[in-house]
Every structure is written in structure tokens, then in C-alpha cells.
ABC transporter permease
Amino acid sequence: MSLSYKAQKKIILITFMLIPLALLLTFSYYPALDLVYLSMTSWDGVSPTKLWVGFQNYTELFSDPMIFSIFAHNLAYVAAGIVQVSLALFFAVLLNTKLKGRNIFKVIIFLPFIMNSVAVSYMFGYLYDPASGALNLVLGHLGLSDKVNWLGNPHLVNFSLGFINIWRFTGFNMVIFLGALQSIPKELYEAAQIDGASAMQTFRRITFPSIVSIIEVNMFLTITGAMEVFELPFILTKGGPIGSSDTFVTKTIEIAFTFGNFGLASAMGVVLLLMVGIIVTLQKKIILRGGD
């Protein structure tokens, strides 16, 4: 018995929906649920048995102020992220004009994003070297202090690492903004020009409202990335000096693989997930006023 065209169409649509749904359940929702389960157990990561302890890991986590104080280190990355998005928007608006050589500038700004993160980390390790680093050498030639220990000073280390993210990801955000800017009808700008609107008025009344949803996406990626920083402090500082560059993720990895407390580490993972959700919600409702 042959199926009707409508029935065949439904079967095809359902089949195509089942594949991504199965992948989502397998690689996103199941690991998340398993993480919640592990967070309520005492497990060393090796033993086949997992002792159920309920909310004991969460009690230990919330009763240890030192663990949550590490989030203060992530604030430097959040600040760097705001600068990063602002610079990306500035460059996107600038390079969306008929600026001479704009394609070359686009390539130069975007190029750091395609570089390997480990290579970038080691490159900046040489740049920040207090004895023979290029940055201190330039500062010395300019008559400024050439004795700055960029990665050894507890007050500077997180900002130094945050600057690397600015350098690396500004181009990625810029490309996203450029795509959004090029989708804005040119007739709107022509009408604004006829009405005598200034560049700032045009940006506030046309450009910004048209790309506010894209700004929200970039802020989402930036803030979640700032909360989940791992490779830069892990490679360059190992959390030093004296734990001043530890992030919540590096601490989670340390508790899991160094101290063998996978239950507590899983609880930290769940808390981080919830905190990212809260921050993103606040961003949508307060900072960007919902983007609607």
C-alpha cells in the first residue's frame, strides 16, 4: 500500500528531526543529567561504585568561601569581554563603510581567531616574559618601566590573560557584526542622511536597534566564555602566582583529577551551569532589555 505525498512528507520531516534530536539527547542532555547524578555521589573517578551522598557536595561547596572567591578572577575576563565586543562593534561599523583597504583590515583583525589556542598561549608567554619579553622591551625603549611581571603579579595576571582574549576574539565578533550590518537596508541610511541625522543619531536610531539581537548573541558567547576560561591560565600560569589566576574551571579540573573528588567537581560543574544561566538571563532582561 503506497503512502500519500502528505504522509511521506511527514515521515521525512520526522526522520530528519529525530537525527539531531538523538544527537542532542546523547551528547547534551544525557551528560548534563549524568553530571547532576554524579554531583550527588562520592566518587574517585576510578572505583566502579559510586556512594550516594545526596546534597553533601553542595553543602561542602557553599560552605567553602574560597572556592566561590575564585569567581572574582573571572571578572577580569568579563571586563575584557565587554571591551572585546565594543571594539568588534566599532571595527565592524568602521569597516562596513567604503574605507580604503577595508578588506585587508578585516583579514588582519580576524587572523588571530584562526590561530591555535595553545600556540597563542605560548606566543604571549614569550611576549609577557619579564626578563626578555617584547612588551617590556618596548616599554623600556619608551622610557616606561621595563620590570613589569605581567604573569607573576597577582593584581595584573588576570587582566594580562584577559587581554589575550581581546586580541584573539575581537575579529570573530567583528565578522558576526559585519554580517548583521550588511543585512540592514541601505534605504534607511539614505533616508536618515536626507533628514540630516548625524552619525551618532544614525547609529542610535537605525544601526543599534537593527543589530541588538546580534549584540545579545555576542555578549552571550563572550560572558559564557569568560565564565569558562581554562586553557590560558592552565598553560601560562598553572593558576599562579599563589592561585591568583585560578578560574572556576581550572579549580574544578584540579579537584577532579588532582584530588580525585569527582562528586564535588561535578557539583561545581552544575553550579557553574546554573550561574551562566542566571547571568545570561540578567543580560537579556536588564542589560539588553530582552532584545525585543
